[in-house]
Q: What sequence folds into this?
């Protein structure tokens, strides 16, 4: 079920694979479908919308919103327990919380199960900032044994249990809620537990939300009991940022600013230059009048672009002097994208006149960002766009100069069948800190709804890269595909050979030269 070659030891029994480690395709597909059909269907409300949305006496389930990382838990009494993400296939194995959970499931004589959970850190010190997903990711990747032992699991849903498919229970969630309590309990001091919450008349939600926020909680998750209807409610995040660029274009027959590129600044300068980290690109919330006025405001401030940037429609980002600050509102500050990839943004140095691009570095982003207002009362020089608004004690990233390395193509194969093309390229990148081998797989079919699909994988050794390449060929190049540049006999009449173990990827001895005269059919294969 797990590709153990991808697991990295993180101390004690704990191991982590960043992606692609779940080998059970059925398990990964079920989890991915649940993620798309349930978890990502959750709507977001602001506190001022509660009374309009929840005004009757209908019973609803309100639970605490835990600021952690959503995971799936796979349990098999014969094979053990692990946490994973879908569709990325990130795997965590050997967490103390998982070990305690396995003990509970064994005691309850549960043989197999698939559960939805949240990996989180408890807020134990009221004087400190509540731990969030950034803290969970940091600890799970590079935490001390004590920090890793502090990670907890809040059990949110039961997907499969001893061969029973419980996904239809979204329409009768009261049964699942009761079962979660019976299996996992409500002790928040334990390594795992059911979410804290209760079933209440929906018209009482405003009061419950106020009480929870006053107690220092992040927000609420509200669920209808008779149908799939999930809502999260959190206070809005408000951030002051400096505008470093804008995009202009047409809208409603007019011309003006379509979006703003904003940044936050690090507290210390580097070589006398201000360090600015791009934070959010925002176009929502601007009125037509503001779009026209902002174009007149920013056009005189344009400077040379340190690199070519465009918006999602391909329109140029014009860079401007970091003079004007804006107030942004959003739903949350997150460190990863919807596919569990680390969010990275551009880092710039500004010397008072021009920008210098320093590279892409990990940095949080504001979800559902909207423009609120210009802040003429605040200035960059007095900390108006400080990075401490979202990160405590921020340290400027260390940007290390790297020499130029020419990538080397070590394997390239193209397969064609009709208008379908499947291409494999294995590249040795060279240089630090890059992963040395990258495998690119391109799948094009003009008749599909989405004609082009591209997959990228990485490896630290050439044998591993070759094994991944062989697996892509075996799984995707089916009957009828022709290897271009090969004789017509290369048309595949059966599935390609199964991938060989890593050792098979090592260079083999060169074949001996064939004798001048051989019987027909004995010539060596090219």
A:
């Amino acid at each position: 079920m797990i590709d153990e070659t991808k697991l990295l030891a993180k101390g004690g029994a704990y191991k982590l694979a960043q992606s692609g480690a779940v080998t059970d395709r059925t398990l990964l597909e079920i989890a991915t479908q649940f993620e798309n059909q349930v978890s990502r269907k959750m709507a977001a409300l602001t506190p001022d919308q509660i009374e309009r949305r929840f005004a009757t006496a209908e019973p609803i389930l309100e639970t605490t919103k835990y600021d952690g990382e959503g995971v799936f838990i796979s349990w098999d009494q014969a094979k053990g327990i692990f946490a994973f993400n879908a569709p990325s296939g990130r795997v965590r194995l050997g967490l103390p919380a998982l070990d305690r959970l396995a003990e509970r499931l064994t005691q309850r004589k549960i043989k197999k199960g698939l559960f939805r959970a949240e990996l989180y850190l408890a807020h134990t010190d009221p004087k400190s900032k509540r731990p969030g997903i950034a803290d969970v990711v940091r600890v799970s990747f590079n935490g001390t044994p004590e920090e890793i032992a502090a990670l907890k699991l809040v059990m949110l849903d039961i997907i499969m249990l001893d061969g029973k498919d419980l996904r239809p229970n979204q329409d009768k969630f009261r049964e699942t809620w009761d079962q979660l309590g019976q299996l996992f309990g409500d002790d928040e001091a334990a390594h795992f537990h059911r979410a804290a919450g209760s079933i209440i008349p929906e018209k009482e939600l405003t009061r419950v939300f106020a009480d929870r926020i006053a107690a220092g909680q992040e927000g609420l998750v509200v669920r209808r009991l008779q149908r799939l209807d999930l809502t999260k409610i959190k206070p809005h995040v408000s951030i002051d940022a400096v505008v470093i660029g804008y995009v202009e274009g047409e809208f409603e027959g007019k011309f003006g600013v379509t979006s703003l590129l904003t940044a936050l600044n690090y507290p210390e300068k580097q070589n006398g230059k201000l360090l600015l980290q791009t934070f959010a690109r925002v176009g929502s919330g601007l009125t037509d009048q503001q779009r026209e006025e902002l174009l007149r405001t920013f056009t005189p401030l344009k400077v040379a672009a340190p690199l070519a940037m465009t918006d999602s429609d391909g329109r140029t980002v014009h860079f401007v002097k970091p003079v004007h600050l804006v107030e942004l509102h959003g739903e949350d500050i997150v460190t990863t994208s919807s596919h569990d990839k680390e969010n990275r943004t551009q880092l710039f140095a500004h010397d008072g006149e021009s920008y210098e691009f320093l590279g892409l570095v990990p940095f949080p982003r504001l979800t559902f960002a909207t423009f609120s207002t210009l802040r003429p009362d605040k200035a960059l020089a007095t900390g108006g766009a400080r990075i401490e608004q979202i990160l405590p004690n921020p340290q400027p990233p260390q940007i290390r100069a790297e020499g130029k390395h020419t990538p080397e193509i070590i394997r390239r194969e193209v397969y064609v069948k009709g208008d379908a093309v499947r291409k494999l390229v294995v590249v040795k990148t060279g240089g630090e800190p890059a992963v040395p081998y990258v495998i690119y797989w391109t799948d094009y079919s003009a008749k599909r709804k989405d004609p082009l699909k591209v997959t990228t994988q990485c490896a630290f050794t050439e044998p591993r890269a070759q094994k991944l390449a062989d697996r892509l060929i075996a799984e995707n190049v089916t009957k009828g595909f022709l290897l271009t540049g090969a004789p017509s006999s290369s048309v595949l009449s059966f599935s390609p050979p199964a991938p060989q173990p890593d050792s098979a990827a090592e260079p083999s001895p060169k074949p001996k030269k064939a004798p001048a005269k051989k019987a027909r059919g004995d010539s060596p294969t090219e």
Remarks:
- Confidence is low (pLDDT under 50) at residues 487-526.
- Residues 462-476 form the longest helix (15 residues).
- The chain has nine helices and 29 strands.
